[in-house]
Amino acid sequence: MRPLTVLSVTSEIFPIIKTGGLADVAGALPSALAAEGVTVVTLVPGYPAVLKALKGSEAVHRYPGFFGGTARLLSGRAGDLDLFVIDAPHLFDRPGSPYLAPDGQDWPDNAQRFAAIARAAADIGQGLAPGFIPDVIHAHDWQAGLVPIYLSLAEGPRPATVMTIHNIAFQGAFPAYLLFELGLPASTFTVDGVEYHGQIGFLKAGLQHADRITTVSPTYAKEIQTPDGGMGLDGLLRFRSRVVAGILNGIDDNVWDPATDTHLEQTYSRDNLNARVANKAALQKRLGLSQNRDVMLFGVVSRLSEQKGLDLVLAGLSSLLSDGAQLVLLGSGDLILEDSFRAASIAYPGQVGCLFGYDEGLAHLIQGGSDALLVPSRFEPCGLTQLCAMRYGSTPIVSRVGGLADTIIDANEMALAAGVATGFQFSPVTLSSFTDAVARAKTLWRDREAWQRLQHNGMSADVSWRRPAKQYADLYRSCLPT
Ligand code: ADP
Ligand code: GLC
User: Across 64-146, where does the E strand assignment appear?
Assistant: First the structure.
């Protein structure tokens, strides 16, 4: 196996800074890839949390003028992650979200902030950091989208580039007048360059110029090549379809392990599923639900956004909660959705419990204590919570889209008879098919043996990074010169 060096470029990374699944992926892939002979160093912005986590750092380069201020490129470690960090206080020394100002609006200089990481990545690709020249630069989402175009502007050899789409809804489009400020010559402002409907399209540029394009499930790889799923980029993706691939995400099975999870009231494995009742009780207590192990408890762990289809849960609440069933929701995001779920918890005291905000420990307890996890997404590139749910014996109820379609085996009659079902799927994403799936789940839940079979199947599925890491390693190798 030829050793390979990869520079991964990401705007968030678990466990240091996370707003969603991208962080989980960026945080877990490096160690999974190590087993495939791939050394990964990750380039991240120097947010306060990153600088705090960075140990043994040294400055490998100083930029006197870098997108409006001075900057240093640091190299160091955080836990088991090898990092390059752009220490540029004028861009990244800000509290809160990596993307949003305290008023909930995008930071006004996001174009400069994320062009900066792409610029530094391209510089590293061309030898800026002594002793480290990557074979491949792996750019994640629009924030890293300019990497291939910056690389294409310089002479000489360059690493291969892989652009991964985690969510095509976020495209990073900025006004054309920023071209010069971003260090992009006028010649790049063309349809086969960065130009996108008269703007500078960061993701578009990456998709246009990367050697390979991946997304996080085979079904989403197809969906984004359709007008509905491509959100404006489907034509370009169809044009480049020969280099587009879908590789499913995994989860870090050390972080997500019910046998050792310290966030749980009671650890367990598939051989003593009954121990989960202690987690159910702890969850009911924590969220003010009535203590009753004999009612079905549904969980949600999610960003609150249009994508996640949680309005279906609200619309279907009365049938969901009929027969005394309960709902716990952990989420943050859209304030209207927050208000609606808050109102639901008032309307159904003891039956609906919500926590708004980000809480890693509670996310684990919901997986370990709920009977079923709801993921009714309108679209879902991959989704990680359904994988965590499988590993924790909470049965996923998901819409049949994107990675949800690829990871869950619906408990239809044949799958039940064959003993392979892991959850419930519904399609189309409508209230009636959602409530049908919930009704099917409720019926099966009363059949303890059949339900435990689902749990066993889910817990036996390999949701780790092992298989996907091998696919990434093969992909990296396939784009190198022979
Ligand atoms: P997305 O990236 O679209 O938000 P994913 O399912 O891929 O969706 O990843 C979401 C990740 O964020 C999972 O690890 C999930 O457990 C976590 N998560 C989502 N919301 C919260 C929250 N409010 N508190 C803690 N963890 C959360
Ligand atoms: C995005 C997607 C989600 C995916 C995650 C990690 O945030 O919405 O489906 O699992 O990225 O790839």
Answer: 71-78, 81-87, 136-140
Ligand 2 site residues (CB inside 6 A) read 20-22, 25, 166-167, 216, 249, 380-384, 403
Q: Tell me the sheet residues that pair with 332.
A: 303
- State which ligand 2 atom lies nearest to the alpha carbon of 403: 9
Q: Which numeric CATH code is attached to 4-250+466-479?
A: 3.40.50.2000
CA distances from 12 to 114, 132, 144, 253, 381 (A): 12, 22, 11, 20, 17
Looking at ligand 1, which residue's alpha carbon is closest to its atom 12?
A: 20
Q: According to CATH, what is the number of the domain 270-460?
A: 3.40.50.2000
Give the chain's end-to-end CA distance (angstroms, integer). Answer: 14
Position in ligand 2 atom list of the atom nearest CA 381: 9
CA–CA separation, 373 and 386 (whole Å): 7
As a whole-number percent, the residues of the chain with pLDDT over 90 amount to 97
What is the per-residue pLDDT for 104?
87
Question: From the CA of 331, how far away is ligand 1's center (Å)?
Answer: 8
> ω into residue 15 within 30 of 0, thus cis?
yes
Domain with CATH 3.40.50.2000 in the chain: 4-250+466-479, 270-460
As a whole number of angstroms, the distance between CA 72 and CA 240 comes to: 36
CB contact at 8 A, 24 and 383: no
* CA–CA distances in Å: residue 431 to residues 115, 305, 324, 333, 373: 41, 17, 20, 22, 17
Q: Whose CA is nearest to atom 17 of ligand 1?
A: 20
Q: Is the pLDDT of residue 451 over 80?
A: yes
Model confidence, pTM: 0.97
For the stretch 186-202, pLDDT in tens is 999 999 999 999 999 99
Does the CB atom of residue 169 touch ligand 1 within 6 A?
A: no
Q: Which helix (H) or strand (E) is 258 found in, with range?
A: none
CA–CA gap between residue 31 and residue 80 (Å, rounded): 8
**Nearest CA, atom 4, ligand 1:** 20
* R_g of the chain computed on alpha carbons: 23
